[in-house]
Amino acid sequence: MSKKRFGPLAGVKVIELCHVMAGPTCGLMLADLGADVIKVEKIDGGDDTRRTVPPAIAGESASYMMMNRNKRGIVVDLKTEGGKAVLHRLLADADVVTENYRPGVMERLGFGYEALKKLNPGIIYAAISGFGRTGPYGARAGFDLVAQGMSGLMSVTGERPDGPPVKVGPPVCDIVAGILLALGVVSAYTHKLKTGEGQMVDTSLFEAGITLTYWQSAIAFATGLAPQALGSAHPLNAPYQAVRTKDGYINLGAANQRVWARAMEVIGRSDLAVDPRFRENAGRMENRAELITELEQVFTTASSAEWLDLFDREGVPAGPILDINAMHNDPQVIARDMVPWLHHPVAGDMQTIGLPIKMNETPGQVATPAPVFGQHTREVLNEYGYDNQEIAALAAAGAIHLGDITDTEVAS
User: Is 309 a catalytic residue?
Assistant: First the structure.
């Protein structure tokens, strides 16, 4: 049914019943790897990110366009019998359905896992929620901010231990949860290829946040003490943080004994490598403040660019601290196709974030922009056996929305 013929997931049919970020991240990953992801949006305005403005480009939400490229979009009112019949037909032969409604909503609509398993025994039902489908918090709503706080991330983020709680800048629980769900879907699809069996896949924002605490949890398990905020510093290695230079900061990654000794040799302070306070990592961790004071006395004598050029020549891991615009223009980012251009039918030429997984035999692609509202409703329904008269009747009854721009018009 899909026009796509690229990537390792070519031919996999995914129905996305997700909105905002966590669920759509999963769909984005699957679509970039070649799956035919059909995004089903609600009739009263669609995905909430369509209204997350500013910023917008020619009236189209920048956040919606970021999260929904490579997908086809249809608009269906699941509160109507006609809308339910449309979704029922789509799900009858789907490989995967993804949803991030609050637990219980899909069951009330008649599309819970038990019902869909009877309709389509091979379906992979992938659910993402605030806290997961089981446990005492299973019915709670959840947001990235709440998950960051409860998972411990905000207690270890910030400039100092006695500072206020600080959220990680990007919505990391949303994004990681979506990536974890995509991993779960691909794993379940592998099982399906072997056995023909579908299954439920379930993850949450809370568990995504917990997953990000590997190092901090290892420390807590071993010592009984809860790690605290360290600014840019590492909880297990030093020096592994931002250091001040003559005109700003750079990151220095002296993460093991060999690199530590080499870095001190390069900056002309081999004495620090044998100083009893700093000779071993344990001592460097215990005396981190004194160590950074010693290092910054050296680093503030030259510019960031001078230090980075020296470290690059000498093979010492270090890097600049870029803002988002500077990152977009970094030559490595461009070489790895991480900021590709797309042409959107309303917004025009625009950039997006590329696929971070490279494959030499079955590469994924960032091929098409996010759909405008209802863009593919007619196209998809035609593919699933609805004729134009039936489609017109569904639209007249308010069960679907056909959109102002069709895929045919975009192609022309």
Answer: no
Residue at which a domain ends, from 278, 296, 322:
322
- Whether 232 is covered by a domain: the verdict is no
In a domain, 394, yes or no: yes
- 186 Rama class: left (phi>0) / alpha (psi -120 to 50) / beta: alpha
Q: Is residue 70 part of a domain?
A: yes
Domain with 295 in it: what CATH number? 3.30.1540.10
- pLDDT at position 103: 84
Q: Do residues 13 and 96 touch, judged by C-beta distance below 8 A?
A: yes
Clarify whether residues 128 and 274 are in a common domain.
no
- Number of folded domains in the chain? 2
Task: Give the tens place of pLDDT for each residue, 182-207.
Answer: 999 999 999 999 999 999 999 999 99
User: What would the mean pLDDT of 111-134 be, rounded to a whole number?
Assistant: 97
Strand duo 60-61 + 56-57: pairing: antiparallel
CA atoms within 13 A on the CB side of 186: 16
Domain residues for the domain of 261 are 240-322
Pick from 374, 384, 250, 232: which is nearest to 306 by CA? 250
Domain membership of residue 222 (yes or no) is no
408 pLDDT tier (thresholds 50, 70, 90):
low
Instruction: Return all residues near 36 (Cβ < 8 A) that are at least 6 apart.
Output: 1, 2, 4, 11, 12, 13, 14, 72
- Residue that has been written with the tokens 């189209």 in this structure: 60
Q: How many residues does the chain have?
A: 412
| Catalytic residue (choose from 95, 174, 202, 407) | 174
Query: What's the confidence (pLDDT) of residue 404?
Result: 80
H or E, element range at 241: strand 240-244
Q: Closest Cα to residue 134, out of 184, 185, 183, 204?
A: 204
Mean pLDDT of 151-166: 96
φ, ψ of residue 28 in degrees (nearest 5):
-60, -45
